[in-house]
Input
Amino acid sequence: SLQSSVFSLQSSVYSLQSSVYSLQSTVFSLQFTVFSLQFTVFSLRSTVYGLQSTVYSLRSTVFGLQSSVYSLRSTVYSLQSSVYSLRSTVYSLQSTVYSFQSSVFGLRSTVFSLQSTVFGLRSSVYSLQSTVFSLQSTVFGLRSSVYSLRSTVYGLQSTVFGLQSTVYSLQSTVFSLRSYSPCPSENPSSPLKV
Output
């Protein structure tokens, strides 16, 4: 009976030792899994921080480009009033940027959206700059035409004044000649009496 108890206890010990080995293996596997997940979390945090920095940088770029767009619009409107109030419609491209800090995919989508917005705003800036240069060239050409026409007007005015002086001189001459012409009763062929 005692041997039977010993055998039973030994069997229990072997079973418990087997369970201990199995649990130790499970613990080791779980520790490795925890370490792997911690490394993954650290890597994802680094990725999230990098993407957040990119988002902030792109937001700053968008704000700067929007300021440039507003400034160029003001310049375009000023030049349009100088060129016979020419109309030009400029549509503002606005994009709402949402930050998804809990999702790397969301942050990447935000980055792509902001990059697209930056590209659109840069295109607007280049287009507005081209419009400004074109309007400035038009203003310069119109001013040159104005200066040329003013010179022509001044020249024509001088010619008119000269012709008027000539007319006045000729009228004075005609008047003088009429005042010195012989009387109707006298013979026109006779010499003048002194």
